[in-house]
Write a structure and sequence with these properties.
With 329 residues, this protein is α+β, with helices and mostly antiparallel strands. Helices cover 44% and strands 15% of the residues. It is built from ten helices and ten strands. The radius of gyration is 21 Å and the shape is globular.
Length: 329
């Protein structure tokens, strides 16, 4: 029998010990901790910290994904929105005032932050028209409130670069020569051309949530809606947030009235220009491409995520959006 190597086997995405994290929370934040429990594991891991001061959410981000400056931008934006009275999870400072620390995991340094805990459930499959309208209005309010956020470091989102950085993983999910890959290439050409044109630079921009979709909107017991997971936030085209909500709802075949209500609620708070309306078809394609390359890049790192079990469904959405844009070949 072959003996196992004594060298540690490579690790790409570990799970940190809850007891050790509890000790860090006590030491760094001065909080009493009765229990630290892992409650969600995906791109990031979420632990629920229970103690006499009430629950908190401890988020452990994956290694090598965000720079310290980008994490700082996110936490600064959350603090800004919370100070403006928006319902967002606010960062909790450590004893020394810092908002983030790092854990030396086997795969690399992982940023860890403590946030206020939001009780409730994500908007479900039965999202009502009223809830869709409220979600859209909430998105509009977030963007308007965030417009004054101007930190020293701005996390700028480059749509094309975010897709291109992960192109090396596409062959694993969309082999060359097949129809799905051909659709992907048509979409990529359209997105590149759109963002290279001067008109794209004239569209309204500002701080965005980056992943505003129903699974990241928490419905609290009193019926309120709270947006979570600002990990993808950044300075970007404002309309992309609306496209993101629509995209995820379509992915899971949510009823169209709820989707339409979200858009109507959003436009009631932040009316969109004719140029933004004209850009929506290619922005949908850009979202398709980004989620496809992300799926190909991370499926072997974090495993299947609810709603993203099959790349074939992601391809279906891309093909639909190419047809709607008149780019179906």
């Amino acid at each position: 029998m072959e003996h196992a190597s004594r060298a540690p086997f490579p690790v790409i995405h570990s799970t940190l010990d809850p007891a050790a994290l509890a000790d860090e929370v006590v030491r760094r934040y001065g909080l009493a901790v009765r229990r630290c429990r892992l409650v969600a594991r995906g791109s990031n891991a979420i632990y629920r910290i229970a103690g006499p001061q009430g629950p908190r959410a401890l988020r452990v981000s994956r290694a090598g994904y965000r720079s310290a400056q980008d994490v700082g931008y996110e936490l600064g934006l959350l603090a800004w929105l919370a100070a403006a009275g928006l319902p967002v999870p606010a960062p909790v400072p450590q004893r020394d005032g810092n908002l983030v620390f790092t854990a030396a995991a086997p795969e690399g340094e992982r940023p860890v932050v403590l946030l206020s805990w939001i009780d409730g459930q994500p908007l479900g499959r039965d999202m009502s028209v009223g809830e869709g309208d409220t979600a859209g209005r909430l998105l509009g309010r977030l963007q308007l409130a965030a417009a004054g956020f101007a930190p020293p470091h701005v996390k700028r989102i480059d749509t094309v670069s975010r897709i291109e950085r992960q192109l090396r993983f596409v062959d694993g999910g969309l082999p060359a020569g097949g129809a799905p890959r051909a659709a992907f290439e048509r979409g990529l050409a359209a997105v590149r051309a759109f963002f290279a044109a001067p008109a794209a630079a004239q569209l309204p921009t500002g701080p965005t949530h980056g992943d505003f979709q129903f699974a990241n909107v928490m419905k609290t017991p009193d019926g309120g809606l709270w947006p979570l997971d600002f990990d993808d936030c950044g300075f970007d085209l404002l309309a992309k947030d609306l496209v993101t909500f629509e995209w995820r709802a379509r992915l899971e075949r949510r009823p169209q009235p709820g989707i339409d209500a979200c858009e109507a609620g959003y436009r009631a708070v932040r009316p969109m220009s004719a140029a933004e309306d004209a850009a929506l078809p290619v922005l949908r394609i850009a979202r398709d491409l980004y989620l496809l390359v992300s799926y190909c890049a991370y499926i072997d790192r974090i495993g299947p995520v609810a709603g993203f079990e099959r790349e074939s469904r992601l391809v279906e959405l891309l093909v639909e959006d190419l047809q709607r844009a008149g780019l179906d070949g």
